[in-house]
Amino acid sequence: MNSYSRFEGLFIPTVTPFDTKLALDHKSLERLCNYQLGIDGVSGLVSCARIGEGTVLSVDEKYEVYEVMGKAARAAGKVHIATIAPQSTAEAIRMLDRLATLPVDAVMVFPPLLFCWGKVGGDLKFRFWEDLSRASRLPLVLFQIPVPNYWYDAETINRIAALPNIVAYKEASFSLELYTETCRLLKASGRSMRVLTGNDRFVGKSYELGGVGALIGMANLAVDRWAALDKAGRSGDYEGAIAIQNELHELSHIVFAEPIVEAVSRIKAILVDEGHIAHAGTRPPQMGIDNAERERVLRSYRELRATA
């Protein structure tokens, strides 16, 4: 039986540090994980998500990252969620079988490319998750990414949530209407699956609507403030949660300015400045940020932290 309560609270999709040659930097990754896990209020870490540059890591590199982050989380007594991006049911099952041998507490699954190929009905999406649920005993995390062509509709999410080992759901549609309707259906159906918001535009409101935590890339920075926001939201202090969200609004604006694809570069620049990782490099096709933007980002972040 799954302990759904383990999947409440703040989860950080940790960046993956590289060295000057863009090879994995294990020491920086361990240092960053230990720092994040040591912050009061952090429930766990998520490896190889979009902010973790999972899309540009080789298969072998991903398993190295899973191992490093999983060991760190186990040592801290916290949760490690590994992310996979399979393109077929068979590939997903093979990955789940291998992950079951590693320090992994749950697996977050990116939707396969086929999910956005024309008008894809809920039955196909449900069957994918039904097959994974039957094939693996690992707890699974559903991921609603901010791309409308990929969206799961609320009814399909509700059906998937009824499967026995679907323990949590990262809702990052950035659609308040879809988020609200999904939470309403889940509550009406008595589903145990936990809703974790990834919507930094209305993260505070997310708790009032039914969320019980956040899985949000912005939490790589100002971790203590995101933990405080989560604590306020889960305690029912929605006004307090929204107040902290407003405090962090400028940070979100800085990091997720266009081109949004370079958000990882901005996060890494700040983490280097804070001494948590050694280098700020990101892998192509990401281009990185120039020195002028780096200075603007660092200056804005320092000012924000000085007034927070």
Summarize the structure in words.
- With 308 residues, the chain is an alpha/beta fold.
- It has a single domain, classed as Alpha-Beta Barrel (TIM Barrel).
- 46% of the residues lie in helices and 13% in strands.
- The chain is built from 11 helices and 8 strands.
- It has helices at residues 26-37, 59-76, 89-99, 122-135, 154-161, 176-189, 203-209, 223-234, 238-255, 263-273, 291-307, and strands at residues 9-13, 42-47, 79-84, 106-109, 140-144, 166-171, 194-197, 213-215.
- The protein has an 8-stranded parallel beta sheet with strand order 7-6-5-4-3-2-1-8.
- Strand 1, helix 1 (26-37) and strand 2 form a beta-alpha-beta unit.
- Helix 4 runs parallel beside helix 5, helix 7 packs antiparallel against helix 9 (238-255) and helix 8 runs antiparallel to helix 9.
- The termini are far apart.
- The mean pLDDT is 96.
